[in-house]
């Protein structure tokens, strides 16, 4: 399936092969699990079960920062799960949240009453995003500065740190419209969608698809306003592992918004960036010039797809024009125009053969190791 998706993007297939044969370790070095205590091994086990994407970038951080961020992330995910569960009464939930810090020192404490299936209607979108994501950005930034991995300004500028979290959270909420509807959750802001339909679920009806896309474009335009802060924040980072940790999720989010913009598929099924596209972003987003080039590329994609009839079109063009002023290079990160059809065919054939060989070799090696262990 990934091969088919990459047919029109030979550089992505090439990067998939590079990533598989060693490129991954340049961006995300393998962590030494044997040196961890049993408690930390348990933490990383839960981390990988909770979020595969964040687990990868967290484990690539340097030194003790890795363990601190791992625990920080798990604690906040636990708090977030508790706060989001609408099956828990307010009378019971508030004391749990207030006393949660004390439970961290009780090894046997468990909470087994979470159901997370009741419908949740979000009434205060900005405040919600700040508490579940903005505060994460602020907390991480303070960790980076306290460890002296980064300058004090990184931890002190809470506005930029807040924007880092808000941009990721808004992107996830926008992308996951249909999944959240199917699970009985509603995260799109009522003050926006209520101007288009009476109920948020109405966007999934075919007769409302035009209104749905207009609301989608308005929300994406709102999220794009955080990109100037993202650029400023990333430009201040000096530690390579911290830069990768921060930059990779941001460029993934930018690519996701570009895929969602003016796209009816958001209301019909899952919208995800290609695996080869994700790998290419991970391998490229390791320095500020490359990140700016990636941002420019996706901003141009959105700009050229703005419908003149869209109610938010002028605002979308305006924020993209503002983003362009932040010293973005006037070129794409990767130029595809010079590839000839013969060259493309040769590259794709070579890549397909290489991929098949590596997959087979990997499976044989794994079988051999397991046989040896037995």
UniProtKB/TrEMBL annotation:
Catalyzes the condensation of 2 farnesyl pyrophosphate (FPP) moieties to form squalene. Proceeds in two distinct steps. In the first half-reaction, two molecules of FPP react to form the stable presqualene diphosphate intermediate (PSQPP), with concomitant release of a proton and a molecule of inorganic diphosphate. In the second half-reaction, PSQPP undergoes heterolysis, isomerization, and reduction with NADPH or NADH to form squalene. It is the first committed enzyme of the sterol biosynthesis pathway. PROSITE patterns: SQUALEN_PHYTOEN_SYN_1, SQUALEN_PHYTOEN_SYN_2. It is a multi-pass membrane protein. InterPro entries: Isoprenoid_synthase_dom_sf (IPR008949), Squ/phyt_synthse (IPR002060), Squal_synth-like (IPR006449), Squalene/phytoene_synthase_CS (IPR019845), Trans_IPPS_euk-type (IPR044844), Trans_IPPS_HH (IPR033904). Its EC number is 2.5.1.21. It is found in: Endoplasmic reticulum membrane. Its cofactor is Mg(2+). One of its GO terms (biological process) is farnesyl diphosphate metabolic process. CDD domains: Trans_IPPS_HH (cd00683). It catalyses: 2 (2E,6E)-farnesyl diphosphate = presqualene diphosphate + diphosphate; 2 (2E,6E)-farnesyl diphosphate + NADH + H(+) = squalene + 2 diphosphate + NAD(+); presqualene diphosphate + NADPH + H(+) = squalene + diphosphate + NADP(+); presqualene diphosphate + NADH + H(+) = squalene + diphosphate + NAD(+). Keywords: Cholesterol biosynthesis, Cholesterol metabolism, Endoplasmic reticulum, Lipid biosynthesis, Lipid metabolism, Magnesium, Membrane, Metal-binding, Multifunctional enzyme, NAD, NADP, Steroid biosynthesis, Steroid metabolism, Sterol biosynthesis, Sterol metabolism, Transferase, Transmembrane, Transmembrane helix. The lineage of its organism: Eukaryota, Metazoa, Chordata, Craniata, Vertebrata. It comes from Piliocolobus tephrosceles. GO terms for cellular component: endoplasmic reticulum membrane. Gene3D superfamilies: Farnesyl Diphosphate Synthase. GO terms for molecular function: D-glucose transmembrane transporter activity; metal ion binding; squalene synthase [NAD(P)H] activity. SUPFAM superfamilies: Terpenoid synthases. Belongs to the phytoene/squalene synthase family. This is Squalene synthase. It comes from the Eukaryota. It is an enzyme of class 2 (transferase). Its main location: endoplasmic reticulum. Pathway: Terpene metabolism; lanosterol biosynthesis; lanosterol from farnesyl diphosphate: step 1/3.
């Amino acid at each position: 399936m990934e091969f088919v998706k990459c047919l029109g993007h030979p550089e992505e297939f090439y990067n998939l092969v590079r990533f598989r044969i060693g490129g991954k370790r340049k961006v995300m070095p393998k962590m030494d699990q044997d040196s961890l205590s049993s408690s930390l091994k348990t933490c990383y086990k839960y981390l990988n079960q909770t979020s595969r994407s964040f687990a990868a970038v967290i484990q690539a951080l340097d030194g003790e920062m890795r363990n601190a961020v791992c625990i920080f992330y798990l604690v906040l995910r636990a708090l977030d799960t508790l706060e989001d569960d609408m099956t828990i009464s307010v009378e019971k939930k508030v004391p749990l949240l207030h006393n949660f810090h004390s439970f961290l020192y009780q090894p046997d404490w468990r909470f087994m009453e979470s159901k997370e299936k009741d419908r949740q209607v979000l009434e205060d979108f900005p405040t919600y995003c700040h508490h579940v994501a903005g505060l994460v950005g602020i907390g991480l930034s303070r960790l980076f500065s306290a460890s002296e991995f980064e300058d004090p300004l990184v931890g002190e500028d809470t506005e930029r740190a807040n924007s880092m979290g808000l941009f990721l959270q808004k992107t996830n909420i926008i992308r996951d419209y249909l999944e959240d509807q199917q699970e009985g959750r509603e995260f799109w802001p009522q003050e926006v969608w209520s101007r288009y339909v009476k109920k948020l679920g109405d966007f999934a009806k075919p007769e409302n698809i035009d209104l749905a896309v207009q609301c989608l474009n308005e929300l994406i335009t709102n999220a794009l306003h955080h990109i100037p802060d993202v650029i400023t924040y990333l430009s201040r980072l000096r530690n390579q592992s911290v830069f990768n940790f921060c930059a990779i999720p941001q460029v993934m989010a930018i690519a996701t918004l570009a895929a969602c913009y003016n796209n009816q598929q958001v209301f019909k099924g899952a919208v995800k960036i290609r695996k080869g596209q994700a790998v290419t972003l991970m391998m490229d987003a390791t320095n500020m010039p490359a990140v700016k080039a990636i941002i420019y590329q996706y901003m141009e994609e959105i700009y050229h797809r703005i419908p003149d009839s869209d109610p938010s079109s002028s605002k979308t063009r305006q924020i993209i024009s503002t983003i362009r002023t932040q010293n973005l290079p006037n070129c794409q990160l990767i130029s595809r125009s010079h590839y000839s059809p013969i060259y493309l065919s040769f590259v794709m054939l070579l890549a397909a053969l290489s991929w098949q060989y590596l997959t087979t070799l990997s499976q044989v090696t794994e079988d051999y190791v397991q046989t040896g262990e037995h």
